[in-house]
Amino acid sequence: MTQQDPHHRRDPDFLQNLRAELSGWRTWVDRAIVLGYALASGLFVVGFTMAADRAFSLFQRLYHWNAWVVLLWIPALTALLVWATHKWFPGASGSGIPQIRAALHPALPPEKIGAFASLRLTFAKIVLGVGGFAAGLSIGREGPSVQVAAGVMQHARRWLSPGSTIDARALLVAGGAAGIAAAFNAPLAGVVFAIEELTGRLEARSSGLIITAIVLAGMVAVSAFGNVSYFGVIRVPDLNWDLLWPGLLVALVGGTAGGLFSRLLAMSLTGAPDRFNRWRARWPLRFAAAGGLMVAVIGLASEGQTFGAGSEAVKRMLAGEMEQTGLYALLKAAATWITAWCGVPGGIFAPSLSVGAGIGHSLAAVIDPGLAPALIAMGMAAFLAAVTQAPLTAFLIVMEMVDGHSMVLSLMASAMLASLVSRMISRPLYEALADHMVARILAAPPDPANPPENAPKR
Q1: Residue 389 — left, alpha, or beta (φ > 0 → left; ψ -120 to 50 → alpha)?
Q2: Per the domain annotation, does 17 fall within a domain?
Q3: What is the pTM of this model?
Q4: Contact 70, 136 (CB under 8 A)
Q5: CA distance 327 to 160
Q6: pLDDT tens digit string along 227-281?
Q7: Domain membership of residue 282 as a residue range
Q8: Dist CA 438 CA 108 (whole Å)
Q9: CA-to-CA distance for 72 and 87, rounded, in angstroms?
Q10: Rounded CA separation 244/403 (Å)
């Protein structure tokens, strides 16, 4: 009889493993708690989506009633939102993705996580984000949905047993991935987003938690909105070599424009030393009102097309119902930059997709209008990949949003090339913003009025 290799792994014993699983009742309680919070995160994202859509519908009614009213409405509401954010909820400012990256930063002490992700910030993000849509600002709800869902999920930690292997980091990653999946109805993009933007890798012990959160949050979103693509089904012609050079041009233009846009945002939001940022630091409400006025003027110049996230404009482009204009992408990018610079809670994912669609739409008008649907989709993937420097997430989001499985290789190539071009121009945007946030929170004195929410309950 040969001696058994001590490193040889035996087959699992089903009955023994089953008894071990059933005997650990506290483990099952912890799992039930996490499942409940995953469902809750999906409900919060769905509620945020419905409220944001309703708020923007009210703004559109105001705009169509009297377009000139927005010259007063947008500056006043922008200043109000910035005042409330600065006074009570500074952690809710901006997108929400940099905050979760900051909460996962290795240099951040655990007691500081509550400054970036908490149930309090979740409610604040929803209310202030809905206010941004009511103001007609150029913002998206997908980035905020990441912070909303992560804030809900991390709250589960206080109810878990002290010996639970589910830590705050895994809950934050699972919540962030669930937020993207539920917001875009794109579960694959949620998994890749967790790897590409939040962790850098998918750990075996947290992969099940992440997928469970995505599935449950996605089920809630599908139950509320139906299992439909975000922008419908894209109709593309038969793809052949005629798309090569136009597609390459879209990827290069989208990558260059996205890299410049990312660099401009990073400089503006990290307080680069210039005159305008000194004004912003000294008079934030006046700066916000002036920024809101500029957004209103841009919206009037574009006949209302740059207001909001830009989703309706993309749908019209894909349907061939939008007039050919070369200025839409530039005006939308300017409105998004100014809105973000003001410090209003709101994301840049959907506006970036809209800008990329405008780039593809404009180039198709010059090259070949018959290629418009394909070039629009490639422009969306290219610009989003360039801004975020997360090409896998970008192409998966676009593919799942337009049901563009026939364009997988084209979308992947445009996203990868655009991201490569962007890396020559700018460092990753969310990384730069997260590092800035961590540096500021570590330099700030402790606030006894706001104790951390992430500590487990004793």
Answers
A1: left
A2: no
A3: 0.88
A4: yes
A5: 53
A6: 655 555 566 655 666 788 999 999 999 999 999 999 999 999 987 767 788 888 8
A7: 241-441
A8: 7
A9: 23
A10: 21
